[in-house]
Write a structure and sequence with these properties.
This protein is of the alpha/beta class. The chain folds into three domains: 170 residues, Nucleotidyltransferase, domain 5, CATH 3.30.420; 147 residues, ATPase, nucleotide binding domain (Nucleotidyltransferase, domain 5, 2-Layer Sandwich); 234 residues, Carbamoyltransferase, C-terminal domain (DHBP synthase, Alpha-Beta Complex). It has 20 helices and 20 strands. Strand 19 and strand 20 form a beta hairpin.
């Protein structure tokens, strides 16, 4: 007679990207960010809807849950905030008065709040923030033993930590503490270049290749003291995040000769050079830290988590130049992944349950852990709205989609369970022809309504990746940047004198829509085990064209979260210039929809926003 399963609910909330995760006997059943349900990007509220989804997915109620985990210790975080305000008084008064009412009303009594919100009367466990990150990195990884490196803005006090995971236990051996933070250093430059903190860091990373690292030495000399082991100290004279409501101050601005760029102002050469410079410094720190961790632990495997682990260029440097044999990065590396980490921490470390790993397959299930929908649900939606669609039989849908991609149509793809984490991996994606020289600008400006410089990722059949990219291992979660192979590069592009944004107009390779201006690409390798629908779609395109690579970008527009439901997908499709929508086995042609005029005003407002 089988024993009753032990359900553990993990929660992260109240900073950014709130999320919930449900684990049963060590298996991840469901995980999702709250933003996907509320449609509020980076929603930090208690993840009520995400929790409801997780319980519904498992067919249980909160009464069936044995333990709830929260991803950090609120009293330690409160201690850090109080001591920081005291150390910087009276300068931090405005920030103090902004933060304290919420802490005194809700956050300091978080255990009671969680119990009340959930109607839960069982045990609530609070691992430390970086323990949750470390658990999210190691426990789903393929490794029985590995070094762990976590890097983010700040948890309670810790900003960076490393240690070792083995079997069912993680151990953190060393840390860097607030205010010295690689994540906050990078966010300071995100703010300075006019992008939103905790949201626009990937924009800064995408902008970096347009410039030269002219200020890297200045950053090393004035802002951050980097040691040979990758540890560092920031010169707090230039930063405002301890005492104020901004990231940088007048000393910082004078150092670079300008105040921060206004969010919608023109991007200048200075912004490109500053972005390039901080990216180079960040990569240097990441690589030095990783090499030190390998030398200290002696491990051949590395697991990464924390928001800095979403810097896929830095990850690529660790892969290419580092001393580790294997690397695994948590797909939801930021705070959302803390929900997953604290749930697994409880099952393995707190409850001391055994864990086995085969060294090859991870337990992340392709990160397709969010809500899905059935073909019956799609058909009911389409018929209720009186929409026009085609439904190719069986595998014919893959040939039909491949045909549309070849015709340079832009396609919204919503099928299977939604991805957990910030990357679209073929379940909630916008796809197109990577061979098209016009597709990058077309999709940025007319589909996503965002900055033209932003690069797109290639999704490539896993077995064909080495023919196009300098990549020695799989990259299923789009968290590694690799160079495009030399035999795919257009030789004439290397001789083109274009600078800055002008480099966008240069055809750089046989797959120009996914080749960044420095001949790099943020690669997703696609296999039939993790996402068979997406794999078969790319395979059909390869059979038709001889090219195993397509464009993959997240199914959303600027300022909105990735789509979750059928309704979300249809609205986003109609409010943009996408040509076709694929909803599991159904294909919709924009020109054939009876309500297309209804969405024109909303489409115009999206462009104006």
């Amino acid at each position: 007679m089988s024993s009753k399963p032990v359900y553990i609910l993990g929660i992260s909330a109240f900073y950014h990207d709130s999320a919930a995760c449900l684990v049963s006997d060590g298996k991840i059943l469901a995980a999702a960010q709250e933003e996907r349900f509320t449609r509020k990007k980076h929603d930090a509220a208690f993840p009520r809807k995400a929790v409801d989804y997780c319980l519904k997915q498992a067919g249980i109620t909160i009464k069936d849950v044995a333990y709830v985990g929260f991803y950090e210790k609120p009293f330690l975080k409160f201690e850090r905030l109080l001591l920081t305000y005291l150390n910087f008084a009276p300068r931090g008064l405005r920030s103090f008065l902004t933060a304290m009412p919420l802490w005194l009303k809700e956050k300091i009594f978080l255990k009671d709040l969680i119990a009340q919100e959930l109607g839960f009367d069982g045990d609530i466990i609070f691992p430390e923030h970086h323990e949750s990150h470390a658990a999210s990195a190691f426990f789903p990884s393929p490794f029985q033993k590995a070094a762990i490196l976590t890097m983010d803005g700040v948890g309670e006090w810790t900003t960076t930590s490393f240690g070792v995971g083995e079997g069912n236990t993680i151990r953190l051996d060393a840390e860097i503490r607030f205010p010295h933070s690689l994540g906050l250093l990078y966010s300071a430059f995100t703010y300075y270049c006019g992008f939103r903190v905790n949201s626009g860091e990937h924009k800064l990373m995408g902008l970096a290749p347009y410039g030269e690292p002219k200020y890297a030495d200045l950053i090393r000399r004035e802002l951050v003291d980097i040691k040979p082991d990758g540890s560092f100290r920031l010169n707090m004279r230039y930063f405002n995040y301890c005492a104020g409501l901004t990231m940088t101050n007048d000393y910082f601005h004078r150092l670079f000769g300008r105040k921060p760029r206004q969010p919608e102002a023109e991007i200048t050469q200075l912004d490109m050079e500053v972005a390039s410079s901080i990216q180079q410094v960040t990569e240097e720190i990441m690589l030095k830290m990783a090499n030190h961790v390998q030398e200290t632990t002696g491990c051949e495997n590395l697991c990464l988590a924390g928001g800095v682990a979403l810097n896929c260029v830095g990850n690529g440097k660790i892969m290419k130049k580092g001393k580790f044999k294997n690397i695994w990065i948590q797909p939801a590396a930021g705070d959302a992944g803390g929900a997953l980490g604290c749930a697994l921490f409880i099952w393995y470390q707190y409850l001391q349950n055994p864990r086995q790993a085969d060294g090859v397959h991870d337990a992340q299930q392709g990160s397709c852990l969010g809500p899905g929908f059935s073909q019956d649900e799609v058909e009911i939606f389409l018929k209720n709205k009186g929409l026009s669609y085609e439904r190719p039989n069986g595998d014919k849908i893959f040939n039909r989609v491949a045909e549309l991609i070849e015709q340079e149509k832009v396609i919204g793809l919503a099928q299977g369970r939604m991805e957990f984490g910030p990357r679209a991996l073929g379940s909630r994606s916008i796809i197109g022809d990577a061979r098209s020289p016009k597709m990058q600008e077309e999709m940025n400006m007319r589909i996503k309504f965002r900055e033209s410089f932003r690069p797109f990722a290639p999704s490539v059949l896993s077995e064909k990746a080495k023919e196009y990219f300098d990549l020695s291992r799989e990259s299923p979660y789009m968290l590694l940047v690799a160079q495009v192979k030399e035999n795919q590069i257009e030789a004439s592009s290397r001789e083109n004198p274009a600078k800055g944004i002008g480099r966008l107009k240069v055809r750089r390779s046989t797959i120009p829509a996914v080749t960044h201006v420095d001949y790099s690409a943020r690669v997703q390798t696609v296999d039939g085990r993790r996402n068979p629908f997406f794999y078969k779609t790319i395979e059909a395109f390869y059979q038709k064209t001889g090219c195993p690579v397509i464009i993959n970008t997240s199914f959303n527009i600027r300022g909105e979260p990735i789509v979750c439901s059928v309704e979300d997908a249809y609205r986003c499709f109609m409010c943009t210039n996408m040509d076709y929508l694929v909803l599991d086995g159904f294909i919709l042609d924009k020109t054939q929809q009876p309500d297309r005029d209804k969405y024109k005003k909303e489409q115009i407002s999206q462009v104006l926003d």
